[in-house]
Design brief:
single chain; about 280 residues; mainly alpha; 9 helices
Length: about 280
């Protein structure tokens, strides 16, 4: 096993860098929270001011669709080649993605960095002999077990099988530090895994900040705020436009529900409605 050496000075430097990275991550998370709160605040205002009007408009569009569908089918039975109306789609209210919770960071190895190098193979052999020598057995059964283990120790030492010697010593109760040296490997792995975790979380947070910054409600909210500072009422203007559309749809619905398919006005109404909605109607045969 090759140990990944790290000095106390290097460990302190890497730990300081990690603390700086975590501090920057915390700043970015606060920026995300603040930005999301501002955008969500405007969305709440937007939905409160315009949501009921959009719902009313969507309901009228649905009723108009039914009236147009009836006229389309009736005209088709009378030999008029028409294009059926498109199904209306409900207006979706703006929503924001939620930043997922971050995973807990891996725990730092206890005790910090222990500066003990891995012992040589001969030292491992001697420690194994002290722990497993048959002469130290309290009874015959234990002696037999120790003889088998010492045979394994001798074979591993003769084959320079360090991994096997370490395994036998650890199974016999020897401490990890005395078998494999200090915990530099564990400390290095903790540093790397923690750095990767923090950097990964930082990328996720920054991606969500970018999504919020580019969200249409963010741009609209800033435009509304600038207009309101000038004494304007942009949300009120939007609401009035929706009310005008609602009035227009009510008039169309009133006419559409009362037209008879045999009337020449039915074809003209359907044609006008289809053209305004982006569709079309073929000429009468």
């Amino acid at each position: 096993m090759i140990s990944q050496a790290i000095t106390p000075r290097e460990l302190d430097r890497r730990r300081e860098q990690l603390v700086d990275l975590q501090r920057y991550l915390a700043d970015q998370e606060r920026e995300y929270v603040d930005l999301r709160a501002r955008v969500q605040g405007f969305i709440d205002r937007y939905v409160a001011a315009l949501g009921p009007l959009y719902m009313e408009l969507d309901a009228l569009e649905s009723q108009l669709y039914c009236a147009m569908r009836y006229l389309h089918e009736a005209l088709a039975r009378n030999g008029l080649d028409t294009r059926g109306p498109d199904s209306p789609k409900a207006t979706a209210m703006p929503q924001l993605l939620v930043l997922p919770a971050g995973a807990p960071l891996p725990p730092e190895p206890e005790g910090g960095l222990i500066q003990v190098g891995p012992p040589p193979l001969k030292t491992l052999y001697r420690r194994a002999a002290k722990r497993l020598h048959p002469d130290l057995a309290p009874d015959d059964a234990e002696r037999s077990r120790r003889e088998r283990k010492m045979a394994e120790v001798n074979e591993a030492y003769a084959a320079s099988d360090r991994a096997r010697l370490e395994s036998l010593l650890l199974a016999a109760g020897e401490s990890m530090v005395k078998v494999r040296g200090g915990d530099a490997d564990a400390v290095m792995e903790w540093l790397r895994s923690t750095e990767r975790a923090v950097q990964g979380r930082l990328r996720v947070v920054q991606a969500h900040i970018a999504l919020l910054t580019n969200h249409q409600m963010h741009a609209l909210g800033e435009s509304v705020e600038r207009a309101e500072k000038k004494g304007l009422d942009p949300l009120g203007i939007m609401a009035n436009r929706l009310r005008a559309q609602i009035t227009e749809r009510r008039q169309e619905l009133y006419i559409g529900q009362r037209l008879q398919p045999e009337s020449s006005m039915a074809e003209a109404f359907l044609r006008q409605r289809q053209q305004r909605m982006g569709g079309g109607i073929a000429a009468s045969r």
